Amino acid sequence: MALNTTFKAIADPVRRQILEELRQNRQSAGEIAAHFNLSQATVSYHLKLLRSAGLVTVTKEKNYLYYELNASVFEEMLTWLYRFSGKQGDDNNDEA
Amino acid sequence: MALNTTFKAIADPVRRQILEELRQNRQSAGEIAAHFNLSQATVSYHLKLLRSAGLVTVTKEKNYLYYELNASVFEEMLTWLYRFSGKQGDDNNDEA
DNA sequence: GAAGTATTTAGAGAATTTTCGAAATAGTTT
DNA sequence: AAACTATTTCGAAAATTCTCTAAATACTTC
């Protein structure tokens, strides 16, 4: 359920690029949008998906919305993937 | 480029379930299809995407095509994700 | 409180993805 | 080689995702 949303969120190249941007430091929606050749509305749409996947969190300051990474959700994906990497990890099969 | 194909491949729940199935043991296309409420053609389509993402390999035997996991490609995804997991991994920024 | 700035939401079109049934391919068995 | 089995490919419909412009929200500053 949650994992599905998360994997879908990360499947889009624009959204992965946004995550890369945020890896450096938190940024406002406008700053993020400035890195792309897309409308502000489109970037906002991508940010919404990242938010609902839990990959980023938002904090309001003045009239800016600052986005930053939320590391813990990445770890869920890592856990899921790790079981396939030949390391013969735990056998939990939930939530494919 | 390759990473994009791989992340897209893993974004679909049917395909993730196929990977789960293959984690137990290799299976023919028909065996895989039997686990789903989908036509053989549809499962074949998903298998093609998994194949072109490099997540599975195929070997022919009699007139069966056996699919099995290819662990190494999972590791590429793990590497990409790991950098976001708070562990402050390497700084390589290629191929978002 | 009016004007301005930052951002999201709404509505709609374009593009991509998923699905199916039918036909094609390829190998096997008799 | 004819009939059978396993699987893929084709063509098209349905569903989902991505994008845009325009309008709405919400906060700040003058």
UniProtKB/TrEMBL annotation, chains A, B:
| One term of GO molecular function | DNA-binding transcription factor activity
Q: Name one Pfam family in it.
A: HTH_5
What InterPro entries does the annotation carry?
Answer: ArsR-like_HTH (IPR011991), HTH_ArsR_DNA-bd_dom (IPR001845), HTH_MetalResp_TranReg (IPR051081), SdpR-like_repress (IPR047796), WH-like_DNA-bd_sf (IPR036388), WH_DNA-bd_sf (IPR036390)
Q: Which domain of life is it from?
A: Bacteria
Q: Which UniProt keywords apply?
A: DNA-binding, Transcription, Transcription regulation
- Record carries keyword Manganese: no
What residue stretches are annotated with the HTH arsR-type domain? 1-89
Xref: PANTHER family: TRANSCRIPTIONAL REGULATOR, ARSR FAMILY, TRANSCRIPTIONAL REPRESSOR SDPR
Report the NCBIfam families cross-referenced here.
Answer: HTH_metalloreg (NF033788), repress_SdpR (NF033789)
In its UniProt entry, what is this protein called? ArsR family transcriptional regulator
